[in-house]
């Protein structure tokens, strides 16, 4: 468990489900990521799902110590042709009133540290290169996503090595079934 200011980061608990749904509805009002989250939590036993709880809300009042204000999900995945696992980062959400305060970066760093301790040496993400580049992610050319990405998304497929001496892997990412919806990999 770690903290940022008055916010605690911990693994998700069953009683966080409603709070997590509220978080994603607030952070992504035009997307419905909750079904994906539920399916991943139900189907992937070694998923790393971290929440940030507590802190002050938009009006400065203290949140419930159990209200989720941030979340990051790391899904263990195979890479075709190797026996090593990597992790796929996403989705990640931060409550609108807590954005631009370093909470998302803290969740990603905490998750990466925990993954490294468990032997995973590489994290992949499909996301904004400007944001993830600040966190050590670089364009990924060796591990291909499970579906071809639109040409203008090429720079959004990125990875970060968690151990400096880890050999980069090559092949196609093989995520769990919940990630195999083509709509998750296209605009």
From TrEMBL:
User: What region holds the N-acetyltransferase domain?
Assistant: 7-168
A Pfam entry, by short name? Acetyltransf_9
Please state what the protein is called. Answer: N-acetyltransferase
Give the source species.
Answer: Falsiroseomonas frigidaquae
Write the lineage as a comma-separated list: Bacteria, Pseudomonadati, Pseudomonadota, Alphaproteobacteria, Acetobacterales
